[in-house]
Amino acid sequence: MFTVKILRQHAPTCYFIRHATKLSIRDALNSAMDEELANDDKVFIIGEEVAQYDGAYKVTKGLWKKYGDKRVIDTPITEAGFTGIAIGAALAGLRPICEFMTFNFSMQAIDRVVNAAAKNLYMSSGMFPVPIVFRGPNGNAKGLAAQHSQCFA
């Protein structure tokens, strides 16, 4: 849980959750994905090194062991390929979490993200939603070269 502060426009009172727990962003993401996988059999994670390696930054740690190969799926280094698979799965009624090792690599699949996923609902007059989550780290990190450090914020 995160500490939550609710401010009312004209009231000076602040409200806090009493038993807040500090979480790293990694642990919060892992917990959120674990919760979604547990609550909905249609949710799955797909991407490079998300299963046996536990994700590039260990965001998917423990999820492959808990949910298995059919729910946490390792792919080859083919961003356009696994993005297309995830979009097709979403169109078929599943709820993929498509993880890029870094958002720099999402550019290899940007046509699919923009034209197949983001616009599909509108291009089909609302008939074909694409319930998908694209996630991954963004920006630079220690020891990474320029092709791994671009920021898309």
Helix content: 25-40%
Nearest-angstrom radius of gyration?
18 Å
Global morphology = globular
* Count of individual domains: 1
Number of strands: 6
List the helices and strands and how they pair.
Elements: E1 5-7, E2 14-16, H1 25-39, E3 43-47, H2 63-67, E4 72-74, H3 79-91, E5 95-99, H4 110-118, H5 120-123, E6 133-135
Parallel strand pairs: 3-4, 3-5, 5-6
Antiparallel strand pairs: 1-2
Domain Transketolase-like pyrimidine-binding: 23-153
Protein name: Pyruvate dehydrogenase E1 component subunit beta
Cofactor: thiamine diphosphate
Written overview of the protein:
InterPro entries: PDHB_mito-type, THDP-binding, Transketolase-like_Pyr-bd. The pyruvate dehydrogenase complex catalyzes the overall conversion of pyruvate to acetyl-CoA and CO2. The structure is a single chain. The chain has a single domain, classed as Thiamin diphosphate (ThDP)-binding fold, Pyr/PP domains (Rossmann fold). It has helices at 25-39, 63-67, 79-91, 110-118, 120-123; strands at residues 5-7, 14-16, 43-47, 72-74, 95-99, 133-135. The strands form two sheets. It has a four-stranded parallel sheet with strand order 4-3-5-6, with helices on both faces. 30% of the residues lie in helices and 14% in strands. The two termini are 25 Å apart. With 153 residues, the protein is of the alpha/beta class. It has five helices and six strands, in the order ββαβαβαβααβ. The radius of gyration is 18 Å and the shape is globular. Residues 1-9 have low confidence and may be disordered. α3 (79-91) runs parallel beside α4 (110-118). A hairpin with a 6-residue loop joins β1 (5-7) and β2. The longest helix is centred in the first third of the chain and has 15 residues, at 25-39.
